[in-house]
What we know:
By secondary structure, this protein is mainly alpha-helical. The chain is about 75% helix and about 5% strand.
Amino acid sequence: MRDVCNSGTLFVVGVATAIAVLIPQIVNLYLVIVYSNLAIMALFALSLAWVWGYGGILCFGQSAFFGLAAYVYAVSVINIGESTAPFLLAVLVPTVFAAVIGALMFYGRVSDIYFAIITLCVTLILYSLISSTAGPQFHIFAARLNGQNGISGFRPLNLPGRSDDVLGPVESFYVCMTFLIGCYVALKFLLSSRFGRVVVAVRENPVRAELLGYDTRWTRTFVFTIGAAIAGLAGALFAVWGTYVNPSLFDLRMAALVIIWVVVGGLGTLAGPMVGAVALQYLGNVLGKQQLANTGMIYGFLLIVFVMLVPQGVFPTMQRLISRWSLRRSQYEMKLLGDDISKGMQGR
């Protein structure tokens, strides 16, 4: 519980809350829409920050859960006509899907490298399947999948049980920020609990944790499932945000982007990957408008630079520098205090 209420967590929550409150008051409607997307991508990065940073599970399938949730929402809301049940279904489907494939792999003792390869294959299989649905015969009841053209023009979020009260851009921004802050606090609470300590123990030494009596297979399956649920929540919000989904949500670029966000922000933290996602997405938006350079090339260059020069990521490096500065300052103050005491003793 102390980890939830420490200064760092309170600072992150305070900054995020201030952003949620102030942004709609100080920027125009277009920027509110842009910042909603940044909040969604931060939530997406948070899912892998949990799975990889604390669970020790390198997963290339976060984009699969993200895209699957987006498609489930789009198909469901077209058929149902109201957003509450489709939104819940969009989070539930990737969660159950992850629980099944996670249990199969972890209880099957699949090694970490093969786990990464299998999740990447799942992502590519979904991309191939969705891309091959261009014909009119590919539909789920009233919803046509449309292949590479994707699904567009479906209904955004409405108030639960009130299908006529559709949320506008400002209300959607509040929803995105609420889910982002809520998931961050929930994960911090989980990490401060006994289960969180078990998760870290399994990450550090799964053999020792198993010898101590912990079921590492169940623990890793549960961690993986929680990460998929958060990625699915981000995917559902993305579908609501743009009212458009297409197979690019499953492609290699999306799978690689979230990994880059986590590496740049800082593996082993929750706030770092969120900041990394926001910063790099904003950089991508600026570069896309200016057409100065290829965005993918810039991302690749940044990944190489950070892996070689700042391997721990921005957030942990900043924390380490601040800790060193505080230590040196306290040592300097102690030295001054000692000098003052010495002078006082000599004056006597």
